[in-house]
Every structure is written in structure tokens, then in C-alpha cells.
Write a structure and sequence with these properties.
Length: about 70
């Protein structure tokens, strides 16, 4: 699945990814596959998987996409 970072707070360790199909999905820092290798900025294109949790959908296996890969 692909989407974009809606917002992410590195100090708090969470944020949201937005997609056309699923809307906003919660992102915890533990769901970032390459955590520490890139900074998450608003509107950054990303790919990820979705996991159902007791609290709802959550992003897992988040990976950055190069802008040229989106489309």
C-alpha cells in the first residue's frame, strides 16, 4: 500500500499516514522499517502494510518512496 505522511512527531514517536482508500492511519515509530535512516516529513511518499489492532488500523513496515516512484 502507498500513501503520504500526514504528520509525524519524532519526539512523541507517532503520527499518521494518509491514503485515498483508507483515510488516516495511525503510525507508531515501531512500525517504521528503516527507522533512523530517514526523517519523516509532511507529504513524504511512503509504502507500508496495515495491521489490525485492538485500537484500529496501524501502519507497519513503513518504507520511504522516492518521489519518482509515486504515481
Amino acid at each position: 500500500m502507498e500513501g503520504r505522511i500526514k504528520w509525524y512527531n519524532e519526539k512523541k514517536g507517532y503520527g499518521f499516514v494518509t491514503t485515498e482508500e483508507h483515510g488516516d492511519i495511525f503510525l507508531h515509530q515501531s512500525g517504521i522499517r528503516e527507522y533512523g535512516y530517514f526523517g519523516l516529513q509532511q507529504d513524504d511518499p511512503v509504502s507500508f502494510d496495515i495491521k489490525e489492532t485492538q485500537k484500529g488500523k496501524q501502519v507497519v513496515n513503513l518504507r520511504p518512496l522516492k518521489s519518482s516512484q509515486v504515481g
